[in-house]
Amino acid sequence: MHFWPRFPPTRIIRPSEVHMRWVSVMKISVVAVAAAATFALVSSPRVEGQARVASVPRLNGKPDLNGLWQAVNSANYDIQAHTAKAALQMRPGPIVPIPAKEVLALGAVGSVPSGTGVVDGDELPYTAEGLKKKQENQDNWLARDPEIKCYLPGVPRATYMPFPFQIIQSSAATFIAYEYAGAARHIYPKDPGPAQIDSWMGMSYSTWEADTFVVHTSGFNDQTWFDRAGNHHSDKLKVTERFTMTDADHINYEATIDDPATFTRPWKMSMPLYRRVEKNAQLGQFKCVEFVTELMYGHLRKEPTK
User: Fold this and answer.
1) How many CB atoms lie within 10 A of CB 239?
2) Closest alpha carbon to 139 in 199, 88, 190, 68
3) Of 9, 41, 62, 74, which is the most buried if we count CB atoms within 10 A?
4) What are the boundaries of each domain within the chain?
5) Closest to 90 in 3D by CA, of 151, 153, 132, 135
6) The CATH fold of domain 59-81+116-299
7) C-alpha distances in angstroms, 165 versus 49, 73, 212?
C-alpha cells in the first residue's frame, strides 16, 4: 500500500480578488510616497530656512535687532586661528619660550585659550610694514595693547570682546551701547558726510540690503587694535558691518576691513552673535578707567606705591 502526502485543495483566486489586492497595494504605496514627500518637504533646507525667516521678529517691516547680544569665541585674544599658550607676551627660555617677567605671576589666568579664528581664509594680507608692526606689538603687548589702559575698543573689536552689548533700534535711528568702558555708537540713518575728527569708535551710518542691516564706519584714529595679538590698522580704516538675523535669538555678523595703508586688500571676519536670554539679562557696568588709574598715574604720587 502506498501513502501519498495529502495537500490542501488548491484555491482558485478569482480575477476580481486580484484586482482588489492590487488596488490595496497601490493605496498603501500612494500613502507611503505622500508621507515620504511630506517629510522631505518639511525637513528640506529651504523650508527650514523659511521657518527661520518667519521666526525673525519685525519692526516696521525690518528685522528687529533690539536686545542684548554677545559673541562667544576667543577672537579678542587673536582673530586668527591659534593654539593655547602660556601668555600673551613671551620671552626666550632655556628650552622653549616662557612668559615675560611682567606677566609671569598671573600663571594660568594670564594664558591664552585656543581658537579656530574668525577671519575668512584665516589670512591677514598685511603689507611688509604692517606685518613688521604687528610683530613689534606682540613683543611689547603689555605696553601697547589699548585694552590694558581701558581705551575705547574700536570697531569691530567692541563686538567680540567678552562683554555683552545692547542694540537699541527704532525707525529713526540705531544706538549700540557696550558694557566695556561704557563705549557707545550712534548710527545715523543716512550718510552724514566725512567725520569732522578722527575718533576711537569712528562715525557710523546705516543702510538696509533686504533684511540685512549694514553699518558703514570711518573716521577712525589709529590707536585701536583688532585683538590682543597685536593686529592693528591705520587711520585710513573703513569697516562695513552686516547684521543678519537668522532667527529670533541669533545674528550672523560680518565685518569687512578696508585699510590700504596697512593691508594689500580688503578682508572679512564673521561670527554668530547670541541673544542673552537669561532671566533679568541686562547691560552691566564696566567703566574701567578708574581700574587703571594706579597703572597710568600712580608714578606721579609724591610717594609712589611699590
Assistant:
1) 20
2) 88
3) 74
4) 16-54, 59-81+116-299
5) 135
6) Lipocalin (2.40.128)
7) 27, 15, 19
